[in-house]
Amino acid sequence: MVDSEPKFFIPESIQGVNFDVTAQMRMVWEVIKAPLIVPLLNLAVYICLAMALMLFMERVYMGIVIILVKLFWKKPHQRYKFEPLQEDEELGNTNFPVVLVQIPMFNEKEVYKVSIGAACNLSWPADRLVIQVLDDSTDPAIKQMVEMECQRWASKGINITYQIRETRGGYKAGALKEGLKRSYVKHCEYVAIFDADFRPEPDFLRRSIPFLVGNPDIALVQARWRFVNADECLLTRMQEMSLDYHFTVEQEVGSATHAFFGFNGTAGIWRIAAINEAGGWKDRTTVEDMDLAVRASLRGWKFLYLGDLQAKSELPSTLRAFRFQQHRWSCGPANLFRKMVMEIVRNKKVRFWKKVYVIYSFFFVRKIIAHMVTFFFYCVVIPLTILVPEVHVPIWGAVYIPSVITILNSVGTPRSIHLLFYWILFENVMSLHRTKATFIGLLEYGRANEWVVTEKLGDSVNSNNKNKSGDAAKKNVATKAPKKTRSKFVERLNLLELGFAAFLFVCGCYDFVHGKHNYFIYLFLQTITFSIVGFGYVGTIV
User: Fold this and answer.
1) Which residues form the Glycosyltransferase 2-like domain (predicted)?
2) Residue ranges of domains in the chain, CATH in brackets
3) What DSSP line would sit under 420-441, residue for residue?
4) Other C-beta atoms within 10 Å of 485: how many?
5) How confident is residue 289, by pLDDT bands cut at 50, 70 and 90?
6) d(Cα 112, Cα 195) in Å, to the nearest integer?
7) Helices H, strands E: what count in the chain?
């Protein structure tokens, strides 16, 4: 009877108090690693290498084109008809077209005077200039201040109108669309758009409008941004490096090769007829500017980028504001790509190669692949290959390609070349946030249509902060309630970045002990950068 009783095999490793969780986990890992983990990770490596090659070829292509443009291409005033507008003794100012200037704003307490003043000081005949301040502010005090500023300039003879709406429907796109509905706009041929922190030079219109007057097929003239607070902290320096490449290379290449690029939403002048023909402003995504540009391009309109025409602006100087901005800039294009890709494919008014450029280069590589390969390859796949040594990443994919891409990206801001290595680490961290936003846009999920206005501090605020006396600063610190300080600390935390910091730290430690490629140096530095962003202290580093 005893022999007939069923027998169960109980592994020695899990008997009684000798239960070894680590050994069991190691056993499970070894069982699934060869048939499952290794093939999946190899597949991920191949996909990431393919994406890295796509980005590499895109960067090399634009690098070659920008060199040719700088050396051999004719200047814009040589490629297009350009005749400076001047007053006529007999006709007076009638040879100047009527220009509408729109300044959309939302609770812009710190910068409204600067933008309104810059617009009112534009060198253009007063009777041929109409300025609209499109105020969607929700703070009654700020609305009153903006309205009073408009009245002050109106008393000086400036044709400026203060315009509000009952609701913020459509956000910026809704405000711009509402502004174009005014009866007096029918006399305007062109509209210049400036965000509330932008300050164009007085000759801005005189240097740009003649291109639109002399070339009826041009719909948009885009100026370059310059940043008044680029040296404020390390965060603003990092942004300057990324945006300078965008303007120096991406916008210039698009303008020179296909007369197409994405409208930057501000510091640009549109032909109002082109806006109307393209269907006007739409609020279906958070990138209403890019949406309008793509639709106008599909109608056959051309765009011109003027790199020597510049408008001063302000960069986000807090990590919170920067993250909101980057979410909008990453989610919006992906969402627009989802909605317009088939419309672009079916379009019959533009050339085949322009379609390829818009779909593949402009949208797929720059707006989707660039974020994903940076995050998945350099922050996920390569660290995982340290834990799975059976998977090999070729050195050309792990080192050479990203090095060339980084060098090409640095051409826009030579003065910050010494910050290049930290810029790489910072961009890798932000790729997590951008990739998440890209997926939200592609899937049109959750925060796909979230619009948070970028916080602006203004020059006066920065100056006041720097000029605070030591006693006042100490007094402020002493009067802060501990509870409020703690809540602010919690608000600064970015848990996803902190989680990846822990993951990379574990991978770095494993590579330090068992690895053969010395990846731990990069992983520990990347861990530090993820931790800095995770604790929300990037904007405080000067």
Assistant:
1) 190-387
2) 81-316 (3.90.550.10)
3) HHHHHHHHHHHHHHHHHHHHHH
4) 11
5) very high
6) 10
7) 23, 8
